[in-house]
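does this look right to u?? zinc ion version
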Amino acid sequence: MQKHDQDFIKRKNRTTVFEIIKNHSPLSRAEIARLTGMSPTTVSRIVAELDHLDFMHEIEQETTSVGRKAILLKVNPKSVLSVGVEIDKTAIRIGAVDLDGSVIGGKSIARNAEESSEATLGSIAAGINALIDDERLDRRRIVGIGVGLPGIIDHAGGKAVLSAQLGWKQADIAGLLKERTGLAAAVDNELKVKSLAEHMYGAAKGSKRSVLIGFGSGVGSSLIIDGDIYRGESNSAGEVGHTVVDPGGLRCDCGKKGCLQTYIAEAALIEQASRVKPVASLDELFQARRDGERWAADIVDRAMAFIAVTIGNVACMYNPDTVILTGKLVERYPEVRAFIAEKCMSEYVWEPLRGTFRIAYSAFEQDGVIIGSGLLAQGRFLDIASQIEQMEQN
Ligand SMILES: [Zn+2]
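got this back:
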């Protein structure tokens, strides 16, 4: 056999064994041999290599027969890391993410709302280097960076095509981060990465078809089918905020009239409230409703009805098994959750679809984008054979 053929097989076998332990752990060497069809000798050799470099651990487990202990193998979740980044209008959040989706050393950096993409990416690069130092992370184990942000994202090219919230156009996020950190970066819309986190380790774990809907500064959604993010032709699938619900309605930021988000987005609600009485925040608007102010009740009640309408419409379009709700409007105000629990399924969802899906809330809330971005980077850049070779060389 040629040398490069042998190398190819060696790499392939290492990857196969690692993947099997990762996806089926804990399991024994004998089970790996059975599942892969490799000889016990080959399996033992590869397991020894992985163990030596700390990619997996042995654990002892009692078997059913009295007193016998089986030696099982389990991937070390901290042996492969990525960095997850969330860019918001006024803050950047960074954390290392392990194979189990746990966050290590999360930190928040203030961002000037008017800041250019270059300035923000400079802060991110510095933040990542500080995170690696502070947490004493082994750079060789970091496979890449994942970035989640609001806007239309060119996922394949690693660019923000347009982020109205951040004021960015055609920002080369992956290129700049690679230049400043030496790490490859995967970039996506914040709701898309959040839905990935929920699918892998959160509220939609085990789901075949889930939709995450975000009700925050805008309204958007992300669909996951059989584990993959559904992107559409230009990665814009799920932009429900700009579906028109009233052709004669209010003017939206996008220039159209009566977009869904003119009835639900935070800024739109505050603006509508301010026409009656100066209101600085959603908290004040909800407080006015609790105090029995009629105008506040009208605005909030209409927003809640449109949240329920959105859930019903999304169910009609995608027929999901799980709908996950996230964003300030549904996470911060118990009256919104109560309304959804009481009325959504029975009054707003088309009758044949009632009970065909469950409505859940984000399991991660604040950390969802960091975790999802980190997992996105692992999915894109993890190449365990190369990782092992890199570790062996050092
Ligand atoms: Zn619009």
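DSSP finds 14 helices and 15 strands in the chain. idk if thats expected tbh
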